[in-house]
Amino acid sequence: MGMTQSMGMTQSMGMTQSMGMTQPREMTHPSLPPMVLLMGPTASGKSALAMALAGEFNAEIISVDSAQVYCDMDVGTAKPTVEERAAVPHHLVDIIPPTASYSAARFREDALRLAADISARGRLPLLVGGTMLYFKALREGLAELPDADAGLRAAIDAQAATLGWPALHAELASVDPPTAARLQPTDAQRIQRALELYRLTGQPPSQLYGRQRPAVLPFRAIPIALVPGERSVLHERIALRFEAMLRKGLVDELRSLKKKFALSAGLPAMRAVGYRQAWEHLDGAYDAGELRNRGIFATRQLAKRQLTWLRAMPADRFDCLDTALEDKVLHFLHAQLKATPA
User: Fold this and answer.
1) How large is the angle between the packed helices 325-338 and 46-57, nearest 10 degrees?
2) Which one of 16, 78, 142, 151 counts the least CB within 10 Å of its CB?
């Protein structure tokens, strides 16, 4: 497999400069307008780097975060501050109530529309986040799948309440081993969707996704992946980040949300990492100390899944722990954007 040189990981870290991945076909059209995809796990420093890039390249930020779309969920989603949003336009933040749902298909539609508007204004679309499914949907398109069935989802949730999600994961493994193998036994939202698809169609979700038709991205994507040279340091960042959310009032924020909206623990918004643990804490399942421990563990598991996704995604990799990260990415993007015809 041919390898191109990346300006990311340093050789001193014992890592290769290139990930040796075939470049996606959206990157083979230099005449297309550019869009930057800044991807990385939680606590990798995406937001701070994005602000620096936006200032340097006259960019507007499109959030690629399945939790930041929800209004009033600020602390647990680490939304950009009022000052940051005043300095740089941010899109797909605070667009639906936490009682609603948002899909990868809707994200792709919204992101392409917004990116076209941003490009037409002579600015650079900068897509930033850690929801890797959204990035995949944007770049590759989506399989044609049946819409969600509220009644079936309620039945699956009721079954999970009785048997537990690991039991439903085992059921999924019996009908679709490939899909079950890539999901954690506690990944309620994805297990529910996989079983829903199977029960609606009678076909394993892996087969349904396998028939997906690739879509052409009408932009020249410049994908950047932030990955940690030392996983233990990222874990330390995650712990500090979750502790900061608790100090900022994550639990009180959830109390307010429950008063303002007709919420249930099964809603996608309330399954977000941090909120799910805070919900269980408010229900008396465990004390504040255990909330901290479970929240940190769940966030680390989220980061692990994000990094697994990233390994399969073509991108130029940069060590998110590198003290020279900003300079290296700026240098890289200047070179990439020079290749874009005026």
Assistant:
1) 40
2) 151
State if pTM tops 0.70. yes
The set of residues, in sequence order, having a beta carbon less than 8 Å from that of 90 and lying 6+ positions away, is: 60, 61, 62, 63, 80, 84
pLDDT band at 216 (very low <50, low <70, confident <90, very high): confident
Supply 321's token pair.
């722990």
Q: Phi and psi for 124 in degrees, rounded to 5?
A: -100, 125
CB 90 within 8 A of CB 120: no
Given CA atoms 94, 97, 102, 108 in this order, what sign does their dihedral have? negative
Phi-psi region at 39: left, alpha or beta (left = phi > 0; alpha = psi -120 to 50): beta
For residue 308, CA distances in Å to 8, 225, 312 come to 18, 12, 7
For residue 160, the Cα-to-chain-centroid distance in whole angstroms is: 25
Per-residue pLDDT tens for 150-167?
888 889 989 998 999 999
Instruction: Tell me if 209 sits within 8 A of 299, measured CB to CB.
Output: no
* DSSP secondary structure, 158-213, as one string: HHHHHH-HHHHHHHHHHH-HHHHHTS-TT-HHHHHHHHHHHHHHSS-HHHHHHTPP
Tokens, residue 44: 């990798």
Name the residue among 149, 229, 134 with its Cα closest to residue 195: 149
Could you tell me the CA-to-CA distances from 104 to 110, 132, 140, 195, 271 in Å, in that order? 10, 10, 11, 18, 16
Mean pLDDT computed over 93-108: 95
**In Å, how far from its chain's centre is CA 229?**
20
User: In the chain, what's the furthest Cα-to-Cα distance?
Assistant: 60
User: What value does the mean pLDDT take over residues 73-97?
Assistant: 97
Residues 6+ away with beta carbon under 8 Å from 158 = none
**Tally: H helices and E strands in the chain:** 14, 6
